[in-house]
């Protein structure tokens, strides 16, 4: 069962964002609250469902991957990257950057939708139980949007009421003030919602607890707050101990399309649902692309290689994001199944009716034979000899310079875990895959990081329980680590192995104070450009141009 969000999208799209240029016109943006439609049960349900819509503009869409995964130690810009300012921190990363402007608008619009829904609650038309349920869901969603806003832009506008009329001034609120609202909202969500696994995409108490654990860890690592570390550990352990979630024994099958429904996947705590019925994939912006299109962005250009043509199975090659050599080297593929479960390294010739002797340079290649092999190591003479005339090798020295700089941006070891070989056509851009937001594996990592200083033995239990589950069968002992191995760098390495591509890395490096040093060490595209300034994104210029109190509300430090 999926949440149908379309009912109010047109109406709520009129609910603007704080201080954008359209706010200079005299329009009552909050008039929706007086609409008789909202005095009906159907209207209230539509208002709550509309509050979910902003999640579909973050999870499963292209540019959030740019914001959260590139410009880090894990991913570089691919051959057709559309946001090099973000990935490389170039001088033109400023308030004019289009994608940041768009997402400022999306997130504030989503926030205002939540504020409007909360203004309508409790509703006399609803039962007490339904009022509590709906308020809990919307409080969670508001907390989620506030987190993304303040962690992306810092001390910006904290809006907790629906906007009314023309708003031409903006006031900064501290990150601390944002988190006061975030934690207050999550406390209400936890109190109002029932403990359960979400089976239909709606927020449950488990979801709110898991997200609060993430928020507590964020504040703890940013402020070195012992109470927040303890809270993060407690909440993570509670969700793990609920017994409603289980780690997959096979990491690759976790990502199989048969397990792509978050409601039935045993690892998924919170997810954004998508469906093959595109009338139910609504969000605020059709330009962001239909449904979940995250499967496109990590695929390399394979269809111009020997014996290859574009196919449903191999996907549509958007070549936006390339793994760093550092990310590949984090895996010991001899013992850790996550390497094979995350990346694609072998391609089979799929050109229809391909016969031996017809492929230039590869006379032995026929349909179904190996076409390409990708290796993060240097190919040995024996491997090269074995491939001669049969298939093409891309090895470490073909793809990367010694320092990790890219030699190729269109052919690379691609991240495959988000792919969808069940699409109807080879060029279909959208997928029915649900967007996984929080998996139980993250809760193991949160518990380990939060306990690392106060109870290293218990922390080690959580990290080793996860690692043993991710071991190649029979290699569990080799995946076990000792107390001396446990530090923040190891935790970040483990988070990379487990969560690469899941929209957390930039935020992880920022909260741990590692963004600049890690990029300088591992990201050869961005190492010369990144500065402490880049721990925040630039405020969109349209926002700064629209307000009248320009001397009070200025651009984030370090940006033009």
Automatic annotation (TrEMBL):
Keywords: Cell outer membrane, Membrane, Signal. InterPro entries: SusD-like_N (IPR033985), SusD_RagB_dom (IPR012944), TPR-like_helical_dom_sf (IPR011990). It is found in: Cell outer membrane. Residues 414-559 form the RagB/SusD domain. Coiled coil: none annotated. Residues 1-20 form the signal peptide. Pfam families: SusD-like_3, SusD_RagB. The keyword Mitochondrion does not apply. It comes from the Bacteria. Residues 81-217 form the SusD-like N-terminal domain. The keyword Zinc does not apply. Belongs to the SusD family. This is RagB/SusD family nutrient uptake outer membrane protein.
